[in-house]
């Protein structure tokens, strides 16, 4: 039932053939078998209030009578269509310059990620270019990437720093993200990431630099209200930041009120998941090499396992053990990991990989890119499902069966509209 007596509303979407709420009991996340239930109903109407939040949800015939006298700034008839929550891409690296297409060719030829990394390619290559780019240049590169994400249905994206590897450039990247927040319709959550070790430093020295120079500078800019990061991240990996260094950096970030969500157990099993559990991290990403103890640990601590199937696909590596993690009640999320190694902006493609390569069901993939993705960013009380009081972030699909967003691989016409805070931010003209 509607709480508001106001007769003016921002939006009504009526006659929705199939509404997929993902949750209708205000769950913060879904685990285990519950990931298979995405709360589907037919012939539904959604009302959005002036604040861009969901005001009411109900059967279309009943809602027609209930809202007879009311007016709507916009009305959409969704007969023959389905509506799902906007996608939440909860792990991306979208701010960078420099073209790494040549590295893709090297990888196709058999070079490994770490071989390229050790030769100064990979992250190091992107760092050199990103340091030389101005804020304006980086913003100009970022906007079309966000546009592509939006056209694929993403309405909330997490965006990391991490291609600076010095204080100045890391702050520059975060400033670029703040500028994008002001001008782009997609909502952005930003993350400070300690991503690698610069070639003129050592793990010890650079960890010290992050703790004694970069995090204090971050605090200064947060206090001045110039930067608003919400999360702290490190690349916890053999040869990059080990467990000890990762822990020190993450704990320092936590003192600033940042939530912990970091890269771990990707290329080597170094017990990143156990660290995530110890620190009560909100998320840990990758987990291709997680061990049995790690699975138990993050299931217990309610740390989301953020799986990034584009990495394993592109590098031809074994994928994370998604089925085992779901069976052990880990809160599984999926994300694009958009970065110059895996330049994928499409959550529908990620869901497809989730189904085919991680052996998840279509329902599990949807939960993992909506409600659980929101949880991994600390946002599931306001985002990630279609429930009264949450933000009105939706995708309207040109099919009455929602599963077509996954099934129709690379389709450019399955999405009809993308809606953010109750306003249409993408209307697909392709049929
Ligand atoms: N693994 C570390 N970081 C990124 C890759 C970054 C890059 O290669 O530029 C990731 O999540 O896959
Ligand atoms: Zn990443």
UniProtKB/TrEMBL annotation:
<dbReference type="InterPro" id="IPR032466">
    <property type="entry name" value="Metal_Hydrolase"/>
</dbReference>
<dbReference type="GO" id="GO:0019556">
    <property type="term" value="P:L-histidine catabolic process to glutamate and formamide"/>
</dbReference>
<keyword id="KW-0408">Iron</keyword>
<keyword id="KW-0862">Zinc</keyword>
<dbReference type="GO" id="GO:0005737">
    <property type="term" value="C:cytoplasm"/>
</dbReference>
<keyword id="KW-0369">Histidine metabolism</keyword>
<dbReference type="InterPro" id="IPR005920">
    <property type="entry name" value="HutI"/>
</dbReference>
<comment type="pathway">
    <text>Amino-acid degradation; L-histidine degradation into L-glutamate; N-formimidoyl-L-glutamate from L-histidine: step 3/3.</text>
</comment>
<dbReference type="GO" id="GO:0046872">
    <property type="term" value="F:metal ion binding"/>
</dbReference>
<keyword id="KW-0479">Metal-binding</keyword>
<dbReference type="GO" id="GO:0050480">
    <property type="term" value="F:imidazolonepropionase activity"/>
</dbReference>
<feature type="domain" description="Amidohydrolase-related">
    <location>
        <begin position="83"/>
        <end position="424"/>
    </location>
</feature>
<dbReference type="Pfam" id="PF01979">
    <property type="entry name" value="Amidohydro_1"/>
</dbReference>
<protein>
    <recommendedName>
        <fullName>Probable imidazolonepropionase</fullName>
        <ecNumber>3.5.2.7</ecNumber>
    </recommendedName>
</protein>
<keyword id="KW-0378">Hydrolase</keyword>
<dbReference type="InterPro" id="IPR011059">
    <property type="entry name" value="Metal-dep_hydrolase_composite"/>
</dbReference>
<comment type="similarity">
    <text>Belongs to the metallo-dependent hydrolases superfamily. HutI family.</text>
</comment>
<dbReference type="InterPro" id="IPR006680">
    <property type="entry name" value="Amidohydro-rel"/>
</dbReference>
């Amino acid at each position: 039932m509607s709480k508001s007596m106001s007769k003016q509303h921002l939006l009504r979407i009526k006659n929705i053939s199939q509404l997929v709420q993902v949750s209708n009991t205000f769950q913060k996340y879904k685990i285990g078998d519950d990931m298979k239930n995405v709360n589907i109903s037919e012939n539904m109407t959604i009302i959005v209030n002036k604040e861009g939040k969901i005001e009411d949800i109900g059967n279309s015939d009943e809602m027609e009578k209930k809202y007879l006298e009311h007016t709507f700034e916009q009305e959409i008839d969704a007969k023959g269509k389905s509506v799902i929550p906007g996608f939440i891409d909860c792990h991306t690296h979208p701010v960078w310059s420099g073209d790494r297409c040549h590295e893709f060719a090297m990888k196709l030829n058999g070079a490994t990620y770490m071989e390229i990394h050790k030769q100064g390619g990979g992250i190091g290559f992107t760092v050199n270019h990103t340091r030389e780019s101005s804020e304006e240049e980086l913003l100009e590169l970022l906007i079309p990437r966000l546009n592509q994400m939006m056209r694929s249905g993403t309405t909330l994206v997490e965006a990391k720093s991490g291609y600076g590897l010095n204080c100045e450039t890391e702050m520059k990247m975060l400033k670029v993200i703040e500028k994008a927040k002001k001008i782009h319709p997609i909502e952005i959550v930003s993350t400070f990431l300690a991503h690698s070790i610069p070639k003129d430093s050592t793990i010890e020295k650079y960890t010290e630099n992050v703790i004694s120079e970069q995090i204090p500078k971050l605090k200064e800019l947060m206090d001045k209200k110039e930067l608003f990061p919400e999360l702290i991240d490190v690349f916890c990996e053999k040869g990059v930041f080990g467990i000890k260094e990762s822990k020190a950096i993450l704990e320092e970030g936590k003192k600033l009120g940042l939530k912990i969500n970091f890269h771990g157990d990707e290329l080597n099993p170094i017990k990143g998941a156990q660290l995530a559990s110890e620190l009560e991290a909100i998320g840990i990403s990758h987990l291709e090499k997680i061990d049995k103890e790690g699975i138990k640990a993050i299931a217990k601590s309610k740390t989301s396992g953020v799986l990034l199937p584009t990495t394993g696909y592109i590098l031809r590596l074994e994928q994370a053990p998604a089925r085992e993690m779901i069976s052990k009640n880990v809160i599984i999320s999926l994300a694009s990991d958009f970065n110059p190694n895996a330049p994928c902006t499409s959550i529908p493609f990620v869901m497809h990989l989730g189904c085919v390569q991680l052996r998840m069901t279509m329902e599990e993939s949807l939960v993992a890119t909506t409600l659980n993705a929101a949880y991994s960013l600390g946002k599931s009380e306001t985002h990630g499902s279609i429930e009264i009081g949450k933000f009105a972030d939706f995708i309207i699909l040109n099919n009455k069966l929602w599963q077509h967003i996954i099934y129709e691989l690379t389709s450019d016409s399955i999405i009809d509209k993308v809606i953010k805070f109750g306003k249409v931010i993408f209307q697909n003209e392709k049929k």
